[in-house]
UniProtKB/TrEMBL annotation:
Gene Ontology CC: membrane
Top-level division of the source organism's lineage: Archaea
Chain segments annotated as transmembrane: 12-30, 42-60, 72-90, 96-120, 132-152, 158-176, 188-209, 221-243, 250-270, 276-295
Entry protein name: Drug/metabolite transporter (DMT)-like permease
Domain EamA as annotated: residue spans: 17-143, 159-293
Keywords annotated in UniProt: Membrane, Transmembrane, Transmembrane helix
The keyword Transmembrane helix appears for this protein: yes
Native species: Halorubrum alkaliphilum
UniProt KW Transmembrane helix keyword: yes
InterPro entries per record: EamA_dom, EmrE-like
Amino acid sequence: MNSARRSPIVSPKAGLVMAVLAVSVGAILVRWSNAPSSVAAFYRVLFTTLPLLPVALHRYRDQFRLIDRRDIAFATLSGIALALHFAAWFESLNWTSVAASVTLVQAQPVFVALGAWVLLRERVTRRMVAGIGIAVIGMVAMSLGDLLGGVLVGPNPLYGNALALFGAVMTAGYVLAGRSLRQRLALVPYVVIVYGACTVSLLLIVVTQGHPLTGYPPREWLVFAGLALGPGLFGHTVINWALAHLESSVVSVSLLGEPVGATILAVILLSEVPTFVTIVGGIVVLVGITFTSSASRA
């Protein structure tokens, strides 16, 4: 088993590069969609979850019976947080630049560290405090710098940036709620419960907002499928696979390539050039995230 893990058929590093490219496409696909953001988020999660159900019911049926109510409750809470993340982040892309939205939503390690300190009483090191402080400075620069400079990329960057940050906070909630569960539950049962709760939550958001679930042109369904296939299957699924073959620090740092990749794609495919303040603020945020993540693993 160990030799198989050390020598996979596909290079884990090559797989990780493909995964980062796949998740980088996510923001572009959201921008290409003309459907309400919550609808796009709903179908993104639904189409990612559906292929897992036959596998879960066939191979993991007995494990589902062993899951207690407390674990189901925490997995459901994790799924609700994930749904709020998707809803907020997808909507943020309607109001601010791809560069700002993707960078700010990637700040979840900062909020995980803060949440672990406040809720779980985990120790906060000086390096973590420094990383959080650096990231916050970058967030402020990205959120306010362009407004003060009079150059706007997006209809309402401040609102869009706030939604992206809320999405990052919800991702932190998703991580914290599921942290202990992954030590007790197999990956597929855990993912099915979390994604199932996420799908139902997004469905409720869509219905509450009064958006239709059908009647969209074929182009929209291709975008929905692309969101599930690219960022979902070839992105996050491959990232989870790579974690079995690479150090978590390598994977975490590699994920910081998503804002870079998404920004480059936005320039090429959307003709959206970020402002100088956004670029500098984004770099500062990424440095802060790197500091916080490395300190959390130390």
